[in-house]
């Protein structure tokens, strides 16, 4: 689990990131979870955008993605979800 201080730090790091995945009306599927997991391994911190036509609640989408990838939900702001997962090989982010 991330502490409040760590979440604040990650939020500041994620501020300039652009969403690299979009969740549409089909919702979350296994293929998407696999791709997001790969991206988290490379980058550690990513943003996922939820499109207007997504039928699921954004909190549910965030929970599904976090559970599927074993990642932490850093923030849900507007229609964007910020996810963090410590990388095994490509460790870039040093948490406070």
Automatic annotation (TrEMBL):
CRM domain segment(s): 1-96
Keywords: RNA-binding
GO MF annotation terms: RNA binding
InterPro entries given in the database record: RNA-binding_CRM, RNA-binding_domain, RNA-binding_YhbY, YhbY-like_sf
Pfam families assigned: CRS1_YhbY
PROSITE patterns linked to this entry: CRM
Listed SUPFAM superfamilies: YhbY-like
SMART domains: CRS1_YhbY
Top-level taxon: Bacteria
Name under which the protein is recorded: RNA-binding protein YqeI
Lineage: Bacteria, Bacillati, Bacillota, Bacilli, Bacillales
Gene designation per UniProt: yqeI
């Amino acid at each position: 689990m991330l502490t409040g201080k760590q979440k604040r730090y990650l939020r500041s790091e994620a501020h300039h990131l652009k969403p690299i995945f979009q969740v549409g009306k089909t919702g979350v599927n296994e293929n998407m979870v696999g791709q997001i997991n790969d991206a988290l391994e490379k980058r550690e911190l990513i943003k996922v955008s939820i499109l207007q036509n997504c039928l699921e609640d954004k909190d549910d989408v965030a929970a599904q993605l976090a559970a599927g990838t074993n990642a932490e939900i850093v923030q849900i702001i507007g229609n964007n979800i910020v996810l963090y997962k410590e990388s095994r090989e490509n460790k870039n982010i040093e948490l406070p």
